[in-house]
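Example: Nuclease.
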Amino acid sequence: MTTEKLTIFHVNDLHSCFTNWPHIVGYVNQHRDESTLFLDLGDHADRSQLITEATEGKGNVELLNHAKIDYATIGNNEGVTFSKPQLDRLYEQATFPVLVGNLFEKDGSHPKWAQPYAIHTLESGIRIGLIGWTAAFTGLYSQLGWKNEDSLEPLKEIVQQLKKETDIIILLSHLGLFKDEEVAAKIDGIDFIFGSHTHHVLANGKWVSGTLITQAGKHGHYFGQLELEYDLEKRKICSVEEKMVAAIDCEPSQETRVLIEQLEADAFCKLNQRVATVPHDLMVSWQDNTEVIQMLCDALAKWCKEEIAMLNAGVLLESIRQGEITKGDIHRICPHPINPCVVELTGAQLKATIERAFTNEIRYLELKGFGFRGKILGRMIFTGIDIFLSENEQVSGIEVLGEPLQLKETYRLATLDMYTFGHLFPDIFQAPNKEYFMPEFLRDILAWELGQEWA
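Written out as structure tokens, the predicted fold is:
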């Protein structure tokens, strides 16, 4: 029996946490040969990090180039936190193919920087089909000027095509584990799904309907190493072994460390631009209404051209001290890739949302994800809405623009997009009418308001 061994390293959801990146690159460099592939499954970039923000993600691409990534797909952090022009420019210098089969221009053509799939041929003649597929944030992509396909039928068609042309089929997926399981169950012919998005750690992968699904958590604490053996005579895979490698146990690449330090220094200089000169300290308290968080909530309403607004105090991570405030300061204080949005709610839905906001479950929730990069949600702050509380901090009355809230009336509420993605506030999540303001982030509104007040 003549066999060929292939090693596939995979990393997902780094989110610009570069502490572990030199260790990952160092290990891959030490174990790389002509029968090795290195894959990135998206969300390598995260605009809450200084380098990513200052370089509009191009620093991430430089790090991927330096690591000699073979193929990559995009996650939602690449896809919907950058404007369309920024994403169009992001991969201009990439030395690797970007695979995305379900993102299109409005006219239905593929982006100039991406291709739906690739065929990689090893020296032994083994042909590997690689397909990229990203999470369907159809509404957000549409507002940014893209078309994002949610159906799995186009993926099935590509797999059927590649079954005729390749020996092994790999899906680079930023769909999340549950969607990956659905793909494996519904689409025959995919050998491996290298997954991401939901931050699961699958120590040895998970087999579903003959397809091995992998995922390696987040932030590069772990990365995957898949070893497979292929029978060249029978033209089939004869053995597979998947394992997680702890990055901290790996010898780091010193060249990568130096590159990160250079990128950090350049980013700091780039963001060292004055936004405003604040005449006095603006204190932050996550459980109180302070001058600066009320100023931000009022600015949110103005930005969205609405009369009422709400946001949680935990979005500001630090107090703003008297003196000059730079773009870098604003980024550090409000790092979240969170967009403003407007949601239409009935009075009954608004009442239920406000009552939930004042529960200890929400006020002290240590949220991770949905764009939030803080510690806890904190107290909910309002513009145009007055809340009356009982002695035990329960909502006893609500007025909107000076009038009692009407349960059957429809209200347009300026708020944060992160409330629309999960089940923090079910009535907001389920609301049919939502308008997102993109690509500006909450920190852009903060900088705008401070500049208006104290330029």
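The longest strand covers residues 236-246.
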